[in-house]
Specification:
This protein is α+β, with helices and mostly antiparallel strands. Helix content is about 15%, strand content about 55%.
């Protein structure tokens, strides 16, 4: 009986160690990159700044074997502004994926996410919104969550800040 318990614990420890090691086979990092920024004055007292950003994502294979059919999925979380409103701003998602045929052993691949447009709206001094909202509102990125899969199995993930994974559920 004691041998069976010991054997069961040994198998459980081996599976756990394998799962932990598997999640460390891939190293993912992401850096925001500004692509474009434009200012416009559509109305005499309003300045609208539109900034287009993307993330430069790096995926590193830390194993000694090629990883077949690697698919990297990402979600960028951002808060969408609502000019002239005191209501809570809406959190939005910007999702996408990138396929890598095969990632060779000890190699790194990089790609850019699809561009995301963020806006900032600012009223001139002395002007205010009828809804009594702030005279300046802007969209802002609240986090990024990236996962790497091979043949449907999760190999690694990156989350910045780490609270994004705690506050949200992954959405395919």
């Amino acid at each position: 009986m004691a041998n069976r318990v010991f054997l069961g614990l040994a198998v459980l420890a081996a599976i756990s160690a394998s799962a932990i090691a598997q999640l460390q086979d891939i190293k993912i990092s992401a850096v925001p990159k500004k692509i474009d920024e434009q200012k416009d004055r559509p109305k005499g007292n309003l300045t609208v700044t539109t900034k287009e950003i993307a993330y430069k994502v790096s995926v590193e294979n830390r194993t000694f074997k090629t990883i077949p059919q690697l698919e990297v999925k990402y979600i960028i979380y951002y808060v969408d502004s609502n000019p002239g409103s005191k209501e809570k701003r809406i959190e939005s998602l910007h999702k996408g994926s990138e396929a890598v045929a095969d990632l060779a052993a000890n190699r790194t691949t990089t790609f850019e996410t699809k561009p995301l447009k963020l806006t900032k709206e600012e009223l001139d001094a002395g002007w205010y919104w009828v809804g009594s909202g702030s005279s300046r509102v802007k969209d802002r990125v609240t986090g990024v969550w990236i996962r790497a899969y091979s043949n449907g199995a999760l190999l690694g993930e990156y989350c910045n800040p780490t609270t994004v994974a705690k506050k949200n559920e992954w959405q395919d």
